[in-house]
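Q: Sequence in, structure out?
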Amino acid sequence: MSKYDYDLFVIGGGSGGVRAARMSAGFGATVALAEESRLGGTCVNVGCVPKKLMVYASHYAEDIEDAAGYGWTVGGPVRFDWATLIRNKDAEIARLNQVYGGILDRAGVKTYAARATVVGPHDVEVDGRRISAGEILVATGGRPLVPEVPGSEHYDISDAFFELPDVPKRVVVVGGGYIGVELAGILNALGAEVHLVHKDEHLLNAFDDDVRTFLTEQIRLKGVHVHVERRVTSLWLRDETKVAKLDDGTELLADVVLSTVGRRPNSRGFGLEEQGVELGPRGAIVVDDELRSTVPSIAALGDVIDRVALTPVALEEGMAYARHRFGGMPMAIDYTSIPTAVFSNPEVATVGLGESQAWHRGEVCEIYKSTFTPMKHALSGRHEKSMMKIVVCKRTDKVLGMHVVGPAAAEIMQGMAVAMKCGVTKAQLDATVGIHPTAAEELVTMRTPVASG
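A: Exactly. Output:
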């Protein structure tokens, strides 16, 4: 008999925490999980899932316009109802919350709908009750950041976007990362006047430079007012209108000012520091290669460790943790060649190194790049282009990075990510027969490098 109430207690019911709990229970461990909000975490409730549903909604605006070039006449005025979208989105999220609950129930995981606080190396407190566990796993995710400027109380955090009562007429989006460009694209397509403020020269800081430049141009063409190399210095109310003042003196008027400058690990207030768990400068729980914190009985994964803040990575960490701790398998988490997508308008997807990353790593590269009009717009009349780029090691012919900006970028990149994981070479891409006519065939038909050395 174990001297603890549970073998494992998980704090946080997001994707990574639920996966670790379910798999650990599958290996025979007794497991409990506490979640003070809704199961599914950021991704299901205020992230990937509702965002993607709203991206779909926003694309219908362009699809209806594009249909005219293909002979379709849409009878009567086209009307969009935000309330219907939000109601249907909420119903889907509620369904997914139940799905997550069912997954835990079927696995035999005891679930507590309450906040858990660490009160000892093997103890948590939930609803005034002290519970012991052989190991504690912290998977509490992240929380939105709000810039500290005069009037910062007038910011709306990105989570609040999903609960807006209607499409605002004027929006200022502050921050040009994943969340900023996605929300700007949705709101712009649904008819809002959108100003996107970003502190750097181009959007999406960590991406390939050509991707950043191209996306910034395309977003502007779609009508988003992009203010680069600018910061908001203060916010205030003028009557019932919000005013965002930029560092060049420009005043932007808005109904909503969204802060999308990033997220920080949600590690404070859980009793971790009091128990000797080391936190990094941004609040991330410091863990070793086995996801253990500085207190060996306390582990952590997902956004709260601030390695790669992506849901699929948290899932991988959750599986690796369970297999290692309770399945007796080696710890194996591969953070290389992780594909990612930004559901902006147009969409971005990438895997591997950007061009400048490759040069800085000392690689001698060949760069292949193609910019073209998607076939759909041959008849739609829309002035929109796609871009594809491949970074190749000149010495080994191995593909180091692939980048797509345009429709279905993420769907295209998922298959290419498998090839990258298998060590695909440029010669192998060249030997692959393309599917015609598709945008994806461009990745296997580019023959002449645009840069080499």
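The mean pLDDT is 96.
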